[in-house]
Amino acid sequence: MTGREDLMLGFRLAVGGGRGSIVRLVLSAFGIGLAVAILLTGASAGTIKDNRDQRVFAASIRSEPIPGVDPLTYSRTTTDFRGQAISFIHLRPTGPNSPVPPGVDRLPAPGEVFLSPKLDELVASDTSGLLRPRLPGKQVGVIAEGTALNPNDLVAYVGSDTLQGPPAYGFGAAPGYDNMIEQGVLALLLIGLFVLLTPVFVFIGTISRLGGAARDRRLAALRLAGTSVRQLRRITAAESLVGAAAGLVVGAALFLLFRGTVANFQVFRFGLYPKDLTPSWPLVVLIVLVVPALTVVTAWFAQRHTIVEPLGVVRETTPPKRRLWWRLLPALAGIALILPGFSVANELDRMAVIGGAVLLMLGIPALLPWLLERAVSRIKGGSPSFQLAIRRLQSDSGTPARVVAGLCVVLAGAIGLQSLLAGQAVQGGYPDRTAGRTIVYAESPVADKAVAAVRAVPGAADFQAMRSLFVTMDNALSSFAVADCATIEAAAGVTGCHDGDVFADAPSFHKGQSVTLTDLDKKEQPWTIPATPRPLGSKPSGIAEHQGVRVFATPSAMAGVDLTGASVTVALRDEAANPDFVELVRNSVAPFGWQANVASYNKNRITDEARMFGDARDILLGGALFVLLLAGVSLLVLAQEQVRERRRALGALSATGVPVRVILRSLVWQNGIPLLLGVVIATATGIGVAAIGRRMFWTSLYVDWAAVGLLAAAAIVMVLLVTVSTLPSVRSAAKTESLRTE
Questions:
Q1: Which of 81, 222, 313, 512 to pair with 93, CA 20 to 30 A apart?
Q2: Strand spans (E) along 505-586
Q3: pLDDT in tens, 436-471
Q4: How do strand 549-553 and strand 476-483 relate by DSSP bridges?
Q5: Three-class DSSP labels, 472-489
Q6: What average pLDDT does range 602-620 have in this prediction?
Q7: Dihedral sign, CA of 450, 453, 459, 464?
Q8: Which pLDDT does position 604 carry in this prediction?
Q9: Per-residue DSSP letter, 136
Q10: Residue bearing the bigger pLDDT, 582 or 428
Q11: Taking a C-beta distance cutoff of 8 angstroms, is the pair 244, 295 a contact?
């Protein structure tokens, strides 16, 4: 036969070999398709970064003057609505040529707002009526979709005619900062992406071995009909290519299905538009070429110790011993890259850290087969089921080691990255500097109106209020507050306050001393300390700690000082236990726009950086559990194939009186021993990665034992489930009919 006829015969054997062939083809197509969908998602990483950088660039303001452009006064404030952050971008043009932000065709006039699509949906769906009054104007339009940084961002452009702030001469500039923390998280996510993709290739290789025993029998029959060894290789390649081609189609469909729903996926600062999930064409071509090639090479590789002759199939029983020296090279190279103490401060250091971690992870699948071979070769004795498993591993430890190696890469990477991310997340909680109160801050022009509005909120009680200025202390500006005695005693930890008293934590302050007070408009006023300052309490709380106040003065001590330029801070509690109390407070000061804002301490609230680390941690943990599922499918395929290949051996064991439960226990040992060794290696490697990589963030080592236990338990449960799922096949194979031959 010609080469074309050999390929066509392989195709017919793959799709026309009866029900068994169809089942194998469907399983192969789905398994490879799932792996292809993951690879296409990973191949979109470059597009995701480029599109996000473009959106950041388009939204960044240009502060350098541009001839002929009237500057735009620009300011951003943030409010919360039931745990969701809403950004108000206040805009005031200074002339007809002021720049327009992306997503709208004109600037909003005073009293007008443009809403992002998600904020427009939220306002329309709010049945409580508490959100619409928060809007600082009448809605006149919707910001164009796709211009917000993230698809679920809640943003509003607000027109103003009183705004004071820095000038903006245009939009479209490089950000004026480099967030090293964010770069560190991205570096960890890139390492995590590699960690999660590694087992995908192992999974493809395992799926490619599906039906290996049946294929060998078919090839033996073809040899009997006169087919040469070279022709057998072409037929094997054609059979494998059918499953690979079907897997590519299924993978593309799964990827497009996921791409259509990705806009609903957002983790804190990171959200994706469907257009972001566009893999680069070179990587798509590479995937289309690599996946079929991997399936063909794997099928050929699986037959390297198999001799297919006309009278049957013979397998070599003594595999060559594995060498150690080259297996240590990836791990040693990875350690050499990480040890110098690179940080994430620049691109070169980040690439060194990522490359070192990748090489360290590659050392696991290289080293595990050698370790497993050496471990099982020295084990003797034990129960019959244990001895059966050890003998099987001694005859072929490579196949289970390869599957478990991919799993261990995930475990090691997840443990290391989880420990790094968890160490940052646990340090990121907000300390309660408000004593559990709601804090309202208002600029001086609206201070009195804001205080009156807050006092009118139903259920508002236990008020503390102070006027804020600045005073020069220790050659630096420090917070200075004017408040009544009730507020000072409650917030500053003092007793026996009388109107006219002064409190300070600076020993250099004394009666009769002349100091300079400054308000936010940088207006300076002289003030002579009228009384000997008393020390502040040892544990300031409430608004004193929240504002970092170092000097308190009562109203009578401020004779001759104009306080109209001082901002005001009010702290209050809810005595009615209204779950929407904070929303009512925010609504009460909403008419004052950017000149007033509300802060409410929440014991469950964490810093932005800690939330970023926590969300990245959840992404990696979810991805690790998903890839564990892939590894479980690989183990299941492997176990089913081994049962098929050993039908005669299992039938012989059963005929000699070995119970089925002993055979099942041997399968548990056979899958569990490589996994147990792998978990130990993965845990040690993961903790080592965390110990070395912690220097990227200058923190002490924190091992997330909860994640370690969860991942290890998931791996153990997976082995048990795989073993239980083989019970019907084992019972069928352990019948005396399996000894029959023709």
A1: 81
A2: 514-518, 524-528, 549-553, 567-574
A3: 678 899 988 899 899 999 999 998 888 888 998 888
A4: parallel
A5: EECCEEEEEEEECHHHHH
A6: 57
A7: positive
A8: 44
A9: S
A10: 582
A11: yes
Lowest mean pLDDT, pick from 7-16, 73-82, 176-185, 294-303:
176-185
**How remote is the C-alpha of 25 from its chain's centroid?**
34
Per-residue model confidence (pLDDT) at position 34: 77
Q: How far is CA 725 from the centre of its chain?
A: 33
pTM given for the model: 0.67
Q: Rounded mean pLDDT of 79-98?
A: 87
pLDDT for residue 315 is more than 60? no
The rounded distance, in Å, linking the Cα atoms of 30 and 36 is 10
- Residue 514: band (very low, low, confident or very high) from pLDDT cuts 50, 70, 90: confident
DSSP code per residue over 155-224? EEEEE-SS----EE-EE----S---HHHHHHHHHHHHHHHHHHHHHHHHHHHHHTTTHHHHHHHHHHHHH
| Closest among 632, 620, 635, 634 to 714, alpha carbons compared | 632
- 434 phi, psi to nearest 5 deg: -120, 0
Q: How distant, in Å, are the alpha carbons of 399, 652, 663 from that of 729? A: 20, 15, 12
634: left (phi over 0), alpha (psi -120 to 50) or beta: alpha
The pair of three-digit structure tokens given for residue 193, joined into one six-digit string:
């992406």
| pLDDT recorded at residue 379 | 82
Dist CA 193 CA 197 (whole Å): 6
Q: Count Cβ atoms below 10 Å from residue 580 Cβ, excluding itself.
A: 13
Which candidate, 418, 428, 329, places its Cα nearest to that of 694? Answer: 418
